[in-house]
Every structure is written in structure tokens, then in C-alpha cells.
Amino acid sequence: MRSALTSLLFACAALPAAADPVVVELFTAQGCSSCPPADALLSEIAADEDVIALSLHVDYWDWIGWRDTFAKPAFTERQYAYAAGDGTSVVYTPQFVVGGSDVIAGPSGIELAKVLDAHGSVTDDVLRIASSPEGREVMAMPMKNVEAAELVLVTYLPQAQVRVLHGENAGRVMDYHNIVHGWDVLAPWSGANVTVPLPDAPKGMRQVVLAQSLEDGRPGAILGAVRAD
């Protein structure tokens, strides 16, 4: 039986069939007491084939007494880069970024559903995965009006459970999904038809490829995405 939250989310955000899924990034932390509801929400939307849901753990909560076992400074920098693109230096945990462009602070299922529904109207077929004698490849389809962008390989752990011993969530056993471990630029992209080889995923990990625009060197709108598995 679906939870009330799941039923609400699926009712509000039934995405039409799209060639490329919508990418949802959640900036979260094991030491943040406001984050568990957002972590649970991410795990629910991760089951939707029209969504690529990614959990990026930031490190600025580590000072309160619990060092996040998944946090990377690069993810903190990424969150601040999104904020700078919006003309602010303020970030929140939890914070969702949908499609590289829409920011939602807090675990608001209704607001997230509305934004997902809006992004679901985009049906561009930008990225495809193919096989060659040498292995897997990602193919970027031609796209107009791309001034600066990059193809990115995201490597993530599908699920993990963590017992938090200190900090705001001390004593809790936390479940996390789609935990990002690697964020690697494969190649710059300017909208041309290109093919890029993909390395094998580490054991137990999965991968997706994103095509993301750059705005003054900062991450901008996500133009396409594809699962590599």
C-alpha cells in the first residue's frame, strides 16, 4: 500500500513519457535533523522511471559532532555554485534542485510535485547509451543554442543504511538512496553530435550521464540525462 505522501506525489507529478528523465538533486546531510523527510521523499521519487533522483551529501554539518560518511566538499561547492547562479550566497539543507534550474528548500512534496510536472513536459531526446566492441558509449544528439555545456558521468550507490551516533540525528538509523560517490566530467559539449566512451561502474555502483549547461563556469540547466545501466 502506498503511503499518503507517495499517493500525493504520484497524483500530482504523473510525468508524461519523456525521452530523457528529469534530474532531481537533493543536498542533504546525516547531521541535519530536518533532512530525513527529504531523504525519504527522494527515495520515493527514485522509483519513477521518468526521474533520476540523486542524493549529494554536503560537509558543512560535520562541525556539530558527526562526520557525514558520504559528504564531499565538491558537493558543497556545487550547491553554493547553484546559489551563486541565483545571485545569493544562501543555501539550505535539505534543498532540492530540479533540472539544474529550480530550487526547493525543505522537504515539500507538493511543491516538488508541481515542479516535476512542469519539467515533465520537456521531451527532448538528448542522450543515448550504446554498445560498441570497445564497451559502452554515450551519444549526445545534436542540439541547437548550446553555448557551453559538459557531459558528466555520475556514479552512485543505490542504497545504504547508516547508524548516526552523534549530532542532531544521534541514535537514529538512516536509510539513504542513490548516494552520489563520483561526479566526473567526460567531455565539454557545444551541442554537436558526439560519442564518448564510458568506464565500467565500480562494483555495487550505478551510473547516469548528464548533459549540463554552464553559466560563467557554474552549473546551469540540465539539458539531458540517461541511465547508463
TrEMBL record:
Signal sequence segment: 1-19
Record keywords: Signal
Record carries keyword Nucleotide-binding: no
Keyword Signal attributed: yes
Family annotation (InterPro entries): DUF1223, Thioredoxin-like_sf
The protein's name: Putative secreted protein
Organism encoding this protein: Jannaschia seosinensis
